[in-house]
Input
Amino acid sequence: MALIILSPLLLGLAVWIKLDSRGSVFFRQTRVGLRGRNFLIHKFRTMRGDPTGAALQVTVGADPRITAAGTFLRRYKLDELPQLIDVLSGKMSIVGPRPEVPKYMAVYPEATREKVLSVRPGITDWASVKFRSENEMLANAADPERTYIEEILPVKQQYYLKYVESHTFIDDIRIILATLLAAVRG
Output
C-alpha cells in the first residue's frame, strides 16, 4: 500500500537522481537477512561510483562521492524508501533489526547473530533512530571502520537483541513514529 501511495514521490526522486548524476537510480547491496540468507537490499543511489574501486562498507562524514541529491536523500532518510520493495518481497519488514553486510554480520557473537537473524530485518528500529548521526560520528574517528565494529556495532546489537526478545505491535508503532519524526527533523 505504501508503495502505491508513495509512487509519485518515488518517481520524482528517481528522476532527480538520474538528472543529478550518471548511474542507476538504485543502489543494491548484499545484506544478511532472515535465517542468515543473503539478499540484495534496495536503496536510492546517493553516491557516485568510486573510481579507485575501493569497497568501503561505511560512509564517513562529507564523503566526496555523495551527490547533491544524495545529500538531501540521506538527510531525510528518503534513500531508504525503496526498501519497501524488499518488504513487499518478504525479505524485510517495516520494523526490525537493520540488516548488516556479511562482513559485519561475521563479527557478531554467534548467539547474538542467531537471535538477530531469527526475525526479518527491518527498514527501521530503535538503533536507526538513536544512531541517526552515525555518519558524523564516524567522520570524527581516526579509524572509522574500527570505531564502527568496536563501539557502534555492539550498542546496535543490544538494541537488536532487546527488539527480538520483547517487541510488540505498540513498540513497532512507536518506532515508526519516532523514525518519521526524526526524518522530518532531518
Notes: Residues 2-185 form one domain. The two ends are 25 Å apart (CA to CA). The chain has nine helices and four strands.
